[in-house]
Amino acid sequence: MNETAQEYTAIKLIARPTGGPITDELFDIVTLARPALAQGELLVQQTHMSLDPAMFGWMSPDTESYIPPVALGDVMRSSGIGKVIESKHPDFQVGDRVMGLLGWTEMLKTDGQGLNKVQNDLPDEAVLSIFALPGMTATQGLFEVGKPKAGETIVVSGAAGSVGSIVGQLAKADGLNVIGVVGSDEKAEWITNELGFDGAINYKTDDLDAKLAALAPKGVDVYFENTGGPIQHAVFNRMNAHGRIAVCGLIADYAKAVPDLGPNWIQVIKKRLTIQGFTMPDHYGDIPALLAKLTPYVMQGKIKYRAHVLEGLPAAISGLNLFFTGGNQGKLMVKL
Ligand SMILES: NC(=O)c1ccc[n+]([C@@H]2O[C@H](COP(=O)([O-])OP(=O)(O)OC[C@H]3O[C@@H](n4cnc5c(N)ncnc54)[C@H](OP(=O)(O)O)[C@@H]3O)[C@@H](O)[C@H]2O)c1
């Protein structure tokens, strides 16, 4: 779509998933007319849109979560990056690069609330992969919840994913023994050979207890939990006294009607464990501090990423399934 286009595409959520793969029937792909602007408004053309596992929660009917679900008939929620193509807003000029909750749409009319200007000239892919949700989540969860110390051992599940890969690299840079849990040998090789993890466990093929014992002979001090599944029990049983567990995500349970049973709490007492869940909407006010913490690691070349880029808005629908199959290699996003 070019910036003078008089029509654009958006995708609305019209039904809620009931388990199984995400299909076209849940969505309505609509063509809309370019909106006229009132004073104080601006028009954004989205260039790259982030896909995130959180979307499964936003599509569910659950009203008890940290953020309300997307209402049926509304444009599906997502964060993204774009450029201002028209403005009647004093703080935004045509050509500004902006980020925010833009939604599954090629264009968005907004009053600018919740929109942030992108102040660097890094490519969209790098911004979404590092300086957006993945990097902020990794930094918050690792440092504020995991409280890592040099010489300790950390296990990161979902380790080749957008959040897990940054967590592991930050921990490595700070002198920890870093073990990543992944679902393929290709991902195991990437995190050890390219990202510098000390070891990898393939949760689909390895003997989990034996591999963990070999890679963490002194036990586990920090567990950064992105997935749940059987690895959770294996790691829990090897936690050291005063260990910390940062519960970031449980993707193994997102599509299950009945989640897996968690480990027994007796270890929490015996090992005096701290287990803390966190979600980033609680920390939007901390973004400047999180950026200040993360940026030096990036500037020193210690954070690598890979972006998995799908083409065109409708690709978002089937693309969501890659999170469950493990088909995404790095930060999943759609180029518009
Ligand atoms: N708390 C927060 O505010 C926050 C913010 C962002 C993300 N998150 C959570 O963090 C986690 C990672 O998010 P992300 O964006 O970085 O996604 P991601 O790791 O890039 O993609 C998800 C990965 O999960 C793995 N996976 C899927 N099903 C699994 C299963 N049954 N058991 C084990 N692993 C499985 C797959 O990798 P393999 O090939 O290795 O299986 C898949 O590639 C998600 O749970 C997400 O909900 C939380």
In brief:
The chain is of the alpha/beta class.
The multimeric state of the shown protein is: single chain
Mean of all residue-level pLDDT scores? 96
Q: From the 3D coordinates, which CATH architecture of the largest domain would you assign? A: 3-Layer(aba) Sandwich
User: What ranges have pLDDT less than 50 throughout 5 or more consecutive residues?
Assistant: none
Query: How much helix, percentage-wise, in residues?
Result: 25-40%
Could you say what the CATH topology of the largest domain is called? Answer: Rossmann fold
CATH class of the largest domain: Alpha Beta
Class by alpha and beta content: alpha/beta
Distinct compounds present: NADP nicotinamide-adenine-dinucleotide phosphate
Strand content: 25-35%
The biggest beta sheet, please?
7 strands, mixed
What this model shows, in words?
GO terms for molecular function: oxidoreductase activity, acting on the CH-CH group of donors, NAD or NADP as acceptor. Residues 20-334 form the Enoyl reductase (ER) domain. It holds the Pfam family ADH_N_2. InterPro entries: ADH-like_C (IPR013149), ADH_N_2 (IPR041694), ER (IPR020843), GroES-like_sf (IPR011032), MDR_fam (IPR045010), NAD(P)-bd_dom_sf (IPR036291). The chain has 336 residues and is of the alpha/beta class. The chain has two domains: 7-119 and 306-335, Medium-chain alcohol dehydrogenases, catalytic domain (Quinone Oxidoreductase, Chain A, domain 1, Alpha-Beta Complex), CATH 3.90.180.10; 133-282 and 291-297, Rossmann fold, CATH 3.40.50.720. 27% of the residues lie in helices and 25% in strands. It is built from eleven helices and 15 strands. Strands 3, 4, 5, 6, 7, 14 and 15 form a seven-stranded mixed β-sheet that branches. The chain has a six-stranded parallel β-sheet with strand order 10-9-8-11-12-13, with helices on both faces. α4 links the parallel β8 and β9 (177-182). The N and C termini lie close together (8 Å). 41% of the residues are buried. It binds NADP nicotinamide-adenine-dinucleotide phosphate (NAP). Residues 52-54, 133-134, 137, 158, 160-164, 182-184, 187, 203, 226-227, 229, 248-249, 251-252, 278-280, 323-324, 326, 328 line the site of NADP nicotinamide-adenine-dinucleotide phosphate.
